[in-house]
Amino acid sequence: MAKSNLQFPDGFLWGGATAANQLEGAYDKDGKGLNLADVLPGGKVRTQIMKDHGFAFEIDADKYRYPNHEGIDFYHRYKEDIALFAEMGFKAYRMSIAWSRIFPRGDEQEPNEAGLAFYDRVFDELHKHGIEPVVTISHYEMPLHLIKEYGGWRSREVIGFFENYATTLFKRYKDKVKYWMTFNEINGAVFHPIMGLGFSPKDEESKLQESFQGLHHQFVASSLAVKAGHEIIPGSQIGCMLIYAPVYSYDCNPDNIFHALREEQVFNYICGDVHVRGEYPVFAKRFFKENHIKLDIREGDLDVIKEHTVDYIGFSYYMSRTEKKIKDESDFIEGNILNGAKNPFLKASDWGWEIDPVGLRISLNQLYDRYRVPLFVVENGLGAYDKVEEDGSIQDDYRIDYLREHIREIGEAVEDGVDVMGYTAWGCIDLVSMSTGQMSKRYGFIYVDKHDDGTGTLERKKKKSFDWYQQVISTNGSEL
């Protein structure tokens, strides 16, 4: 550990982050319905499914494995896992609720009591250890019935179903949860609508039209949730959640600089502006026109969006993105999920994700300059291969180095004057990767004995990074 000479705010929300579909398991227990993640197979085929068109949303157990079905069995082991989070000193735990545990089909009027009761137990366990829950209402786990019968977020009817779902959560957990976020990485739908919007585009030509119409429905639904949350839980903090990647120009060619600017506007700011400023940005009009996007905006939609804006921005940060106007195959780096060009100044992870700690400081400054609302880094972490040594230890110094440098840049951003609420490291316990469905892509401070072929005891084991993060939290970031 080294002195950082950085001052993090009092009450800074240190902790970790997960998603229900990636760790709970128990995919068909206690009345839970099937959701999107339950039909996504593990392995490289999952990445291809997200890129291709016309996915059928069916389980083919003879052909594929479905690692989300068991996850790491948090559903039955949550007490053990939360105790480990508490041992690290977590102040907050960012988690999600599985929509289909509460409404198995998604369109029912009355919720599933067994699902509600499970999250009561989780929240009670967190509070027993002094950990604040930070809850994402929808995190890549849309009920399968809404996908197959309604076409996912293409359908305006889903707005009402989501409003009923969110309102049910607020009423049930009003005394247990203060911090909420509506949709996980909402702007990621521009790249992968299958995850965020619950549909697979018919073809490339229709992708943008369908995606932005689906996003508009989510904007309205999110604003209605903010309205309900503020009414039901006075003093609650309800945020949006973005995947954020600052966009660099490949060089100083003005054409590339403007191309990078436009990419950043469309990807990073359309969703942020609607959620925080309560309106579509001025550049969206031209972007929609040039891409033949015609939104069906109903009477009252824009009023709801304007009147019920979020209290803070939660965001994930994994990488920056480098853009040039005209790219060829040699420009791309395998693994960069946002399709940027290779940045010659950056190294990459085992999965080809470029590592750019300074980009996090840039992101925080950009977001705060634009929006002037509190910011919450709710996902950041390193997916890597971990080796269990003969003595049983996991020496993940590479993870410590990655997290140390990113946390250092958050501290620098705080010194810059940015209002940062907290930091919850992604995958604080090993879980199923969203993008590849693998267990071997590990993020956690806690190792879980579960492997890509489905074998393993599910035993939990502390990595070297566990003790390191414990010290970071106990010193409020003054020792890194």
UniProtKB/TrEMBL annotation:
This is Glycoside hydrolase family 1 protein. NCBIfam families: PRK09593.1, PRK09852.1. The active site is at residue 379. The keyword Hydrolase applies. It comes from the Bacteria. Belongs to the glycosyl hydrolase 1 family. GO terms for molecular function: hydrolase activity, acting on glycosyl bonds. SUPFAM superfamilies: (Trans)glycosidases (SSF51445). The lineage of its organism: Bacteria, Bacillati, Bacillota, Bacilli, Bacillales.
